[in-house]
Predict the structure.
Amino acid sequence: MNNDCIFCKIITGVIPAQKIYEDDKVFAFLDINPVNPGHTLVIPKEHFKNIMETPPEILCNLVKVVQKIAPAIVKATDSEGFNVGINTGSSAGQVIFHTHIHVMPRRSDDGRALWKGKEYGEGEIEETAEKIKTAIG
Ligand code: AMP
Ligand code: ZN
């Protein structure tokens, strides 16, 4: 529990939220500012600031819950599919520093376009792959 964390306060009930699922390790509730109605945040009950700080077995628990509840979110909101997202770091849009997975129900006519891919320059894709492989070690 982190006393300065909004999501920790949601888990303990200090801040209200629309909880849709809970087990001993995972909590899921509706995002207050949804991409589409039913947009859900799946979070560990234990506080970690992002996925890199989250133990792998806890990440597995989160993904299992995503798999379990996403079909229900899609069905209940009359959607067709869903996006799963994890923002890591401010530059990637992370605003709340308690690990969370976004589950965003989608319809083909919802007007919520995804970002478009950009093109690599000459030789850039190979060079990028080499740099990443070197960094992985
Ligand atoms: P991120 O940008 O990945 O850190 O996502 C944080 C998400 O938390 C945003 O989509 C917010 O709309 C959502 N959010 C912030 N405060 C609350 C709250 N009190 N209840 C529900 N969702 C919240
Ligand atoms: Zn927290």
Summary: The longest strand covers residues 101-106. The chain has a mean pLDDT of 97.
